[in-house]
# Entry
Amino acid sequence: MVVRVAGPPPADSSSPLEVRHDGRLIRAASAEDALGMIIDGYADLARGPERTRARLTLALRAREVVQALLNAGEVFEQSTDEQRQVLLTDQGATPPGLDVWNAVVPLVLVTSFYRPLGDRDQPRVAGPGQIWWIDPETPTSLLETLHQVRWLDVLRMATPDQGSRYRNLGPNGAAGYWWRPRAAGVDA
# Structure
């Protein structure tokens, strides 16, 4: 069962998964069900490669939005020309092949293109550099990492057999950045 409602969750909510996205609260029995409310037509896709492609498409779209917001900050001006080129490049066509990321602006990457799944080596981080990863491999990993980069808010994620895999990163998310105002009555 999936429910999409506006407003804060009631204190007695029994949904194993609650996600705030696009101004609405999504209550679902599983990460797959929640993605069905976020990705148009996801529930109608066959399990396997079709859903994997849909998750990758969402990850790339979220990466673009989050990177643009990070780039809009005042520290962007401290980036070198080479770093700006990486930060401003559309990664959907060709993700960057970097050895080291040391810019003050975090770089948002999608795991699908980097080892062990992809054919590129993962870049190392040096100096003030940060890399924020979005992982569309599974529905759960996608929701968790979209929360970590603050594209959506996972309010609750638990499964009956293994407990919660979700690690609450507090109000500052992946690396101490909060790029949008907190919704009233919601503690992430």
User: Anything to note?
Assistant: The longest helix spans residues 49-71. The longest strand covers residues 17-21. The radius of gyration is 17 Å.
